[in-house]
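Minutes, project check-in
Item: structure for the 243-residue chain
Input as provided by the requester:
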Amino acid sequence: MIAHLMSSVYIRQDVVAVGKYCVNLSGINKVLQDQQYTTHLYQFLSTLVTQSHFLSMTLSNMNTSTFIPKKDYKANRLVSGILQLSKHTHFIVDETALTAGQLDSKGVQNLTALGNVINWQKIDYDFQYHPIEQHTNIPVLILSEGKSMIMSDAQIRLSPTHTDVASAFCRIESKLTTDILRRIRLYLTAARLIDYELSEDMQKMVQDDFVESRRNDNSINAEDLHNLLILARLITVSCGEKA
């Protein structure tokens, strides 16, 4: 979760946004849902980051909301969409709110747009006659009961032994003094801005380790290596290190 909170796109290679780290927090069962766990979690996380936005992924929201900004030529203005968020806005998607039903064409379009932000950190603005691609830098956290229908970079599954949600968050919030909150916010921001470097010796070590891993398990691919490198970078900067 710390790695997710300090993640940020720092370079783009072709269509790949390097540095993003979308997390799927699953295992939010009915007991937790009935106690508004996702709302409590969002309220807690919103105190740690400078900008945040919560999306209740109901069937109605998916089918009726406007996710993609669209140009209104009559009014000569851009009509904003839910995904038109500023840089480093933490986007929390509550998939537990999704009930059985059918996504219509707009719902499918919205789900595709959300997937594009998560996987490629981009939005295709709708200018009716042609789309205009805009890059984003939005950390996304998906909250779900089972594994999310949307692809993520990592999955964390909750296995709670205590399920009194309100008292748990009250205990946490009672320890978050103004000074501690200030320090956490400074830590997350400073870690995100660290200039991380991978030395040539370390790059060779990574390559050799990847070759050895492939030799032992041929199911390991380049995408696995990419995700491990991103996670290694985030763990390193979380400790205040540059390499």
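Outcome recorded: The radius of gyration is 20 Å.
No further action items on this chain.
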